[in-house]
Amino acid sequence: MAEPVLAERPEPRDTEAPTTPRRRAGAPGDGLVRSTRIGGGTAWVLGGRHTESGRPILVADLNLPATTPALVYEAHLQSRNMNVVGATIPGIPLFWLGRNLELTWAAIPAGAVTVDLYMETVRDAEGVYHDGSRWVPLEVRREVIRVREAPGFRDEEMTVRSTHHGPLMNSVLENSARTEGRGAFNEEAGVGNPPIALAWTGQQEGNGFSSLLALTSASDGSELRAALANHHEPVVAVVYADAAGDAGVQLAGWLPLRTLPSGLVPVPARMRIYDWRGAIAYDTLPSIRLDASSSVTGPGTRGWVAFSDGDLDPGSSGIEWLWRPGARARRLEQGLAALTGGGTASDSEGALGARRADLRSAAELQMDLGVSDADKVVPAILRLARIGGPLPPEAEEIANLLSRWDGNLGGESTGAAAYSVLNRHLFAALFRSELGESLFDRYLDLPGVRPALMVGRVLLAADRYRARGGWADLPRVVSGLRESLRLTWVTLSYRLGPSREDWLWGGLHGLAFRPFSGADPGRGGSKELPRVGIGGDANTLASSRSGTTGFDVASASTYRLAVDLASPDRLLSSLAPGQSEHHRHPHRRDGTRRWLEGRPNILLTSRLYIEEESAPPLLLEPAP
Asked: Has residue 77 got a pLDDT over 90?
């Protein structure tokens, strides 16, 4: 049967919107680094009293770079003592999402701060630094890195100078500044650019390999929690469930015990109050249980547990977190309440009604494109925009599109296109002049930045208080909003043409799988994997994040897994673009069509079923 051709959205007329910030040249290897970065994920467990099978269902996804091949690889390993299936990363024999016969789990990057920067006081001529009490010698070591090149290998030697906090990073900062065109970095100690030392939890003794490997043989929730007690790095939130009904979320990893938080800025190294005082004890890390008793955080009977972009603890643990706005968490709470008949995660069984979810209906939540706070932000936009009097015709047309929008960021939605472009313009109007061009661009480069959510909070504050001063200064917000509405009309006309039928979010928000090496696939994608328009953004459950310039997709939730513990073969999964690692393989994009349609595949583990349904197998045998 001929392979179906992927439908393409209209190509944008230009790679950048008129007012999009300039793109800076990246350093060599930046593309490969981006290809290996997991951008978070979402995972939840639905308790057995809410499922048709009576056993827990786990649903999870990973936000991955849009590459071919994909970062993760599905595998099923079976031996006398092991039967495990799920998502691995080639070269690292661990299952980040997976299940064995009794247990299922999903390890999601937690978003905790694991790095601090210290401004050191150094006397270069003497090779000493001040540790807060006295002058002590810098630790100096030489490292040799073997670099593979076309002719063969070469050795590159580097000198590393360290304080008790960690290595001095000035040479790295200098190279970064030159790459970004910001001039040379001053390596000498001074008021402007003091020596900076890096403290990172990965430098501490321990490993994350053995603990995650132990999950494959754990038989229940208690064994999983015991295995994670020695976990080191990376810091993950593990969502899990066993066949007996024990389920929860467990934070695991080496996290620094701080007296004062750094606030994500360099801190004075001579003030010992900023020094780490060891690791936070594992038994005090955030832990949520599905059926929590009085001895566990969150007492009461819960219908489900989940982890996405919301708060995992109330702040009592002493952990410093990256920004966790909670947009996906709120939408997930709404979706799970609807799936189970209403209520909240901690409601009793009787209050939730008798509705029970099957595996496919639970997995459908992964495809949700709704914006959790659109019903509040859009009315605020319409009220604020008209404070200054009648809108210009172009701005009025965009306002009318927003008034008819249903709050879903579907690829075929004109309202979604208007909303997304407006947020981009308004974010620039509110923050670019205040931060300055260079800092504004660098801020947008940071992982986890959510311009739409920041704009929404400013708009809601301005609409509520109607006051002067601060970020929500009413005249400033109204002026920026009215101009941004007009610019949104200009951008849509310029990028997608005069026909309003072409003003679709998917026309701007295009996905083109790039080579894993980081090479640019071109505006239309490659011949084998053409560019396609998709819906969503960083704040929807079906997440897809744009780059710092333009609207094209840089990463998306391209791996999805759903597990029902009632049977070993009750697994659904989606992996885009597909499983093959060879760009000319006939099955190289087998997963793309169903992923785009939101129809996960059945992930078979029974040998009989696999042999019946599979193409000719490839048998690998060890050499004698």
From this structure: yes
